[in-house]
Amino acid sequence: MDRSSQLQENLSAIQGRIEAASLTHNRPIDAVQLLPVSKTKPASDIEALYAMGLTAFGENYVQEAIDKIAALSHLDITWHFIGHMQSNKTQPIAQHFDWVHTVDREKIATRLNEARDGVPLNVLIQVNVDQAPTKSGVNPDALDTLVDHILACPKLTLRGLMSIPDPADALALAQSHARLKTLFDEIQSSGRVSHQFDTLSMGMTTDLELAIAHGSTMVRIGTALFGARAPKEST
Ligand SMILES: *Cc1c(COP(=O)(O)O)cnc(C)c1O
After folding, report:
1. What is the maximal distance between C-alpha atoms in the chain?
2. Tens of each residue's pLDDT in the chain, 235 residues
3. Nearest CA to ligand 1 atom 13
4. Ligand 1 centroid from CA 159, angstroms
5. Which of 43, 82, 136, 155 shows the greatest Cβ crowding within 10 Å of its Cβ?
6. Which helix (H) or strand (E) covers residue 63, if one does?
C-alpha cells in the first residue's frame, strides 16, 4: 500500500474511534476535533492529510516545525505548538504558530505576549493535574493566578486547558481527565473568561475514548495516524 492510502486508512480508523466514542458518551458529533500530531514525520505526510481535509497540525520541536511550516506555506494550515516550552524559544513560537498548548508559567505567557505580532495567539494552559514532580504544567492551586495573568495579556487569547497525564493505569487516567474537566468547568463558569474559552485538549492515541468520555474537545493523535515514531534524542 502506498503512503497516502495508508494515511487514508489510518485516518478513517481514527475518525471511526472518535465518532463511536462521541456517540457512546452523548457528545455532539462535531464536539471533538482531531489534531494530528506530526512530529518527526515528513511534510509530505502533512500535505497528504491536508488533501484529505485536515487543516490543523500539532508539532513539538521548534526547528523541525519551522522547516515544515516554511515548506508548506502554500497551504492554509493552522499550526499548534504542543511541545515543552523553553523561555528561549518563545520568540519563534509566537511568530510561527497559531496556537500554543503548553503555557504553564507567567514568564512564558509574558514573553509570548511581547513577541506576538498580528492577531492574538491562541493559548491553552497545560495543567499538571496529578502534580507529578517531574512533569511540566501548572499545579492546580496556581491555575487561577495564571488564568488572570493570561487574561491581562492583549496578544494572547485564552482558549482553554491541556494535560498530558501519566499513563499509570486506567483508573488514575480517568481521575486525571475528570479533574481537568472540573477545573475547566470552574473557570468557564467563573465569569472571568470569554466564550472563546472553549477548548479542552486532552487525549492521545491510547486514551482518546476515555478523554472523550470526560469532555475532551480536542484529541492529539500521532501514532494511530502516522504510525510509530523513531525514538527521538531529547533536544
Ligand atoms: C507526541 C504527542 C502526542 C501524540 O501522542 P500519540 O500517543 O502518538 O498519539 C500528543 N500530545 C503531545 C503533547 C505529544 O507530545
Report:
1. 52
2. 899 999 999 999 999 999 999 999 999 989 999 999 999 999 999 999 999 999 999 999 999 999 999 999 999 999 999 999 999 999 999 999 999 999 999 999 999 999 999 999 999 999 999 888 878 999 999 999 999 999 999 999 999 999 998 767 888 999 999 999 999 999 999 999 999 999 999 999 999 999 999 999 999 999 999 999 987 655 4
3. 82
4. 20
5. 82
6. helix 62-71
| Predicted structure pTM score | 0.96
Amino acid at 44: S
Does residue 213 contact residue 26 with C-beta atoms inside 8 Å? Answer: no
Q: Is the CB of 220 under 6 A from ligand 1?
A: yes
Contact 126 CB / ligand 1 (< 6 Å): no
- Rounded distance from Cα 163 to ligand 1 centre (Å): 11
Ligand 1 contacts CB of residue 174 (under 6 A): no
Cα distance between residue 34 and residue 15, in whole Å: 8
Give me ligand 1 centre to Cα 60, in Å: 9
